[in-house]
Automatic annotation (TrEMBL):
MF annotations from Gene Ontology: hydrolase activity
Listed InterPro entries: Pep_tRNA_hydro_II_dom_sf, PTH2
Transmembrane parts of this sequence: none
Catalytic activity as recorded in UniProt: an N-acyl-L-alpha-aminoacyl-tRNA + H2O = an N-acyl-L-amino acid + a tRNA + H(+)
Enzyme class: hydrolase
Pfam families: PTH2 (PF01981)
Signal peptide residues on this chain, from the entry's feature table: none
Protein name: peptidyl-tRNA hydrolase
Organism: Streptomyces ehimensis
Documented EC number(s): 3.1.1.29
Keyword Hydrolase in record: yes
Alphabetical list of SUPFAM superfamilies matching this protein: Peptidyl-tRNA hydrolase II
Keywords: Hydrolase
């Protein structure tokens, strides 16, 4: 699913730069699909592991692609794979991140029209996932990515949004905080906010993802990023 933290397309100077996209592939086997919340959290962590990888910085082999991608819109597209498709995708340069039930592979950014053939054939649709039971309360000592309760999104779309939220948190941190969070495995939670809390979150000055509205939903805020007390010193709202 394509998603952008942007203002309307024709008003953003980033559109003048060549456009790249960050590919993510979620493994969805027919017999054992991942839980939705775990897939969202794993996708967010996958983005962070790529951003923190030495290949994405300095003279690393992915550094130029990452820089070109961040110069434009931080587009992310989530596709699904299973069986032989997953094995072929896993042979490409990238990295796999696992959760309790989910496995997501993230790849260095590619031009919008320059996808590897092993990935371009994978389906974007069909990423509808469910949680077998309601998620537990989030760990407020780590970052929480709060999803807009007024939106209906496929799991793939929501995974892209969670990845955006994690990236906004990453950008807000200094090197020491980034290192500490990485050592903790980029622990975070993704939850849907209560409507009343969503209004408070989006008015609080916290980082907020704003989608450009190219797919599934109208333009507007999708994820609010609330920092944890332990490894991610972004603001945290006071609980009622």
């Amino acid at each position: 699913m394509t998603s952008d933290d942007t203002v309307p397309y024709d008003e953003d100077p980033r559109d003048r730069a060549p456009q790249f996209v960050l590919p993510l592939v979620v493994r969805i086997e027919k017999a054992a699909p991942p839980a939705r919340t775990d897939a969202l959290e794993t996708a967010a962590r996958a983005v962070l592991f790529l951003l923190s990888d030495e290949r994405a910085a300095g003279d690393g082999e992915w550094a130029r692609a990452v820089a070109d991608w961040e110069d434009g819109r931080i587009r992310k597209v989530v596709r699904r794979a299973r069986g032989a498709e997953w094995r072929k995708a896993s042979a490409l340069p990238g990295m796999a991140v696992t959760g309790a039930t989910a496995e997501v592979r993230v790849f260095p950014p590619v031009p919008l029209d320059g996808w590897p053939k092993e990935l371009v054939k994978l389906q974007v649709s069909g990423t509808d996932l469910d949680d077998p039971e309601p998620p537990a309360a989030p760990d407020l000592t780590r970052p929480v990515l709060w999803i807009n309760p007024g939106l209906e999104m496929s799991a793939g779309k929501a995974m892209a949004q969670a990845g955006h939220g994690a990236q906004l948190a990453w950008w807000a941190l200094d090197d020491a905080a980034r290192d500490a969070w990485r050592e903790d495995g980029f622990a975070l939670s993704v939850r849907t906010a209560d409507p009343e809390r969503w209004a408070e979150l989006t008015a609080s000055g916290l980082p907020v993802v704003r989608d450009a509205g190219f797919t599934e939903i109208a333009p507007g805020p999708t994820v609010a990023v609330e920092g944890g007390e332990r490894y991610c010193p972004l603001p945290r709202l006071r609980l009622p």
